[in-house]
Write a sequence for this structure.
């Protein structure tokens, strides 16, 4: 009987509590208490206003509402990276980096943003990154950002932009053209299309990665105007020939990837001027003609790939004599002859000439396929006499194109190449941060 009485009393109190629950939730909501997604359904409290917080520097107070406004536009944050974007200590927010700005070494400002791999989604970056006045670096590889690329032209210190592996589309982001201090531009693995504007090759970039987009049209004639060190244009649909102006990059260009496009025409003699070049990959295009002997001037070349093109005649022995070659791929072309020096490279595994038309070597194209190509598809290249010239053994031609003696040119570039790292560009063929 006592147990029954206790049960009845407990049930009575439980019933009262249940009946009062809506009232209690209402009171809690009115007081701004956060109950989470399974709570009362009332809006979560707004972040504190600038007036309610104490900041280490006025520059941080200025950007606080900008950051909070951007946070409210984020539609997905699967890794919960924005969880600590709360309060006045902006320099401790995940992805934000502070430093002393150049105009006031005692001040503290947001100088860099690194959202690499955050997987954030937001409809636009406009009104956020372009409104952080002291921003110098913006990295956002592997997110789901889209919309228009912000205009950074009002940011006086800005010099590095990485928006690779996102959901941007449309034409090349012209908002980056004219940024005088921009030295690093990475827009790979998006859906940009159309032409690559000539103006981008007039900027003082050191790194330009635009691979794995949908760019078409020809490379502009001023292609050789950029002082870029590392250049990747691979995996697009670029057409036309390699501009002869590429020879102007003789003291700067270290690595360039042009593979998997639709580039055509003959290999320009001026390619042999690139004395700092260590990596050149133009495999899987529509290039034709012989290999120019000027390639034997690429003293620093380590990796040279012309595979899967329409190249023909003999492989220059001078090219096979380069001492730093690690990989020379000429497979799937229409070469007919290799000399004894090249045969040594074939034996050592450095030179790949499979699927060509070379008598006596294994794994070559059929006689019918080779005959058909030479009867139907050979076209003479412009400036045919240049294909036998070796400019580094011709002082007059060398100095004319290089703008000075070898000693002067070497002295001017020694500092630039001293700290270079090998095969940087191949890492850009991966979606994520290299």
């Amino acid at each position: 009987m006592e147990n029954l009485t206790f049960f009845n009393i407990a049930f009575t109190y439980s019933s009262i509590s249940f009946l009062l629950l809506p009232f209690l939730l209402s009171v809690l909501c009115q007081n701004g208490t956060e109950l989470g997604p399974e709570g009362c359904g009332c809006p979560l409290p707004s972040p504190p206003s600038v007036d309610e917080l104490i900041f280490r520097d006025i520059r941080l107070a200025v950007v606080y509402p900008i950051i909070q406004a951007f946070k409210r536009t984020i539609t997905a944050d699967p890794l919960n990276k924005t969880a600590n974007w709360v309060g006045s200590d902006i320099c401790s927010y995940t992805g934000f980096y502070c430093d002393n700005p150049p105009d006031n070494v005692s001040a503290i400002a947001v100088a860099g943003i690194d959202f690499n791999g955050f997987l954030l989604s937001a409809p636009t970056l406009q009104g956020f990154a372009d409104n952080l006045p002291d921003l110098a670096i913006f990295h956002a590889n592997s997110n789901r950002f889209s919309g228009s690329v912000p205009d950074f032209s009002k940011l006086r210190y800005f010099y590095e932009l990485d928006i690779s592996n996102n959901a941007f589309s449309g034409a090349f982001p012209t908002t980056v053209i004219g940024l005088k201090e921009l030295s690093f531009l990475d827009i790979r693995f998006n859906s940009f299309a159309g032409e690559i504007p000539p103006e981008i090759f007039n900027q003082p970039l050191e790194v330009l990665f635009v691979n794995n987009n949908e760019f078409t049209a020809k490379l502009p004639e001023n292609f050789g105007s950029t002082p870029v060190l590392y250049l990747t244009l691979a995996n697009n649909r670029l057409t036309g020939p390699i501009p002869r102006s590429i020879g102007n990059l003789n003291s700067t260009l270290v690595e360039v990837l042009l593979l998997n496009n639709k580039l055509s025409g003959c290999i320009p003699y001026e390619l042999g001027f690139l004395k700092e070049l260590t990596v050149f990959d133009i495999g899987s295009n529509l290039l034709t003609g012989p290999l120019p002997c000027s390639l034997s001037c690429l003293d620093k070349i380590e990796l040279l790939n012309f595979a899967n093109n329409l190249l023909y005649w003999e492989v220059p022995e001078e090219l096979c004599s380069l001492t730093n070659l690690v990989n020379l791929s000429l497979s799937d072309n229409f070469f007919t002859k290799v000399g004894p020096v090249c045969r040594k490279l074939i034996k050592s595994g450095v030179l790949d000439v499979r699927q060509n038309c070379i008598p006596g070597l294994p794994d070559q194209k059929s006689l019918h396929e080779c005959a058909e190509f030479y009867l139907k598809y050979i076209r003479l290249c412009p400036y045919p006499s240049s294909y036998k010239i070796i400019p580094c053994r011709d002082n007059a031609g060398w100095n004319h194109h290089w703008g000075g003696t070898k000693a002067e040119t070497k002295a001017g570039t020694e500092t630039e190449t001293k700290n270079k790292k090998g095969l940087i560009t191949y890492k850009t063929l991966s979606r994520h941060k290299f």
Summary: Helices lie at 2-30, 58-73, 317-320, 340-348, 367-376, 395-402, 406-417, 424-427. The two ends are 76 Å apart (CA to CA). The first helix runs from residue 2 to 30. Confidence is low (pLDDT under 50) at residues 1-42, 395-421.
